[in-house]
Specification:
- With 130 residues, the protein is an all-alpha fold.
- It has a single domain, classed as 23S rRNA-intervening sequence (de novo design (two linked rop proteins), Up-down Bundle), CATH 1.20.1440.60.
- The protein contains four helices and no strands.
- Helix 1 packs antiparallel against helix 2, helix 1 runs antiparallel to helix 4 and helix 3 runs antiparallel to helix 4.
Length: 130
């Protein structure tokens, strides 16, 4: 999956989050969960786009870490919706699966980019010693 595919996927995730959030009950608990879920879920796509525009590999790695965290936080709120029975598991489960998949994708990408950054830094150190 390339960067453009992930941009589309994270945007689609944000839209699905917004639709699900709109279905939450208009109670104190529902409003709190809605706000937290919308912030985390829409942040996934926004921060992934920011990561792609990173000015350095180090910035890219750092921003991918934020995307991973926001994906995981989204999963937390979705789990809370299921366990608190605010919406049915059947409705929430597909979005929870996507949140968990995004966590895994971003974690792998961050680790891969971190390795490449360390390799680049080692090569620079070797070059500076000569």
């Amino acid at each position: 999956m390339n960067a453009e595919d992930l941009k589309k996927r994270t945007k689609a995730f944000a839209l699905r989050i917004l639709r699900l959030a709109a279905a939450l009950p208009n109670t104190i608990e529902g409003r709190v969960i809605r706000g937290q879920l919308v912030r985390a879920g829409t942040s996934v796509g926004a921060n992934y786009r920011a990561a792609c525009r990173g000015r350095s590999r180090a910035e890219f790695v750092a921003k991918l870490g934020v995307v991973e965290e926001e994906s995981d936080e989204s999963a937390f709120w979705l789990e809370l919706i299921i366990e608190g029975e605010f919406l049915t598991q059947r409705v929430v489960e597909p979005l929870l699966r996507e949140a968990n998949e995004l966590v895994k994708i971003m974690a792998r990408s961050r680790l891969s980019a971190s390795r490449a950054l360390r390799k680049q830094n080692r090569q620079l150190e070797i070059g500076n010693r000569k």
